[in-house]
Amino acid sequence: xxxxxxxxxxxxxxxxxxxxxxxxxxxxxxxxxxxxxxxxxxxxxxxxxxxxxxxxxxxxxxxxxxxxxxxxxxxxxxxxxxxxxxxxxxxxxxxxxxxxxxxxxxxxxxxxxxxxxxxxxxxxxxxxxxxxxxxxxxxxxxxxxxxxxxxxxxxxxxxxxxxxxxxxxxxxxxxxxxxxxxxxxxxxxxxxxxxxxxxxxxxxxxxxxxxxxxxxxxxxxxxxxxxxxxxxxxxxxxxxxxxxxxxxxxxxxxxxxxxxxxxxxxxxxxxxxxxxxxxxxxxxxxxxxxxxxxxxxxxxx
Length: 301
What we know:
By secondary structure, the chain is an alpha/beta fold. Helices cover 49% and strands 14% of the residues. It is built from 13 helices and 7 strands. The strands form 2 sheets. It has a 5-stranded mixed sheet with strand order 1-4-5-6-7, sandwiched between helices. A two-stranded antiparallel ribbon has the order 2-3. A hairpin with a 5-residue loop joins strand 2 and strand 3.
């Protein structure tokens, strides 16, 4: 994957840093591959290669980068190499990219000692985008898309597949497999109510906040980092409450020019507070009665 600057490059880096946290990496592998069973353990992981090389045009040697790669060790040798690739946009030719990444690792094994045999290279594509993956998931799909394939050739065409997980669209049964920071991000994407009710402490709060910013473009998640002390454990609920209070205060100040009620409702909507929650804030902050609070909320909702 080529280095990219600007907003997209920052988003890529935030995603890489998040999935590169060892506990997050383990949680993703166990949750997605092993259905929540604790098979891969953090203490058995070592950083894997993220850079490999291939022949470009002419005599040019080019490099390519994986997002995150870790070896699982057993008895002082490699048991499996796991790789995670983050995607926010659908790449139709992703099967070719992953085949190149995985092929480079298998080629490396070809040159190494054969004493312990070949270990598997397992790659997952994490689609963080707003649309489910509708691109090709295998090389055969790519070939068949624009070409007629003779029946006799089908068994001779390599069919390297990619394993894509649409992270915004995982069902509740799959989300329940996760109990760490991954669950916070997944609930943020699809079940905000559960996110608030769980009051779960974050192991990697700064990485989680940067990930949420990358996925939402809401700068208030970056602002929350300033209020976190090193080593301090906070829940998403704690940070949202603090952010909400700062936003409400700001909304009230801004509201003096356009009406306090409108400013508060706007701030509530910006922080994802529902209609009933906005009514509650109007009642508590301005001392409005139920009927007046509902009327104001409806006016500015």
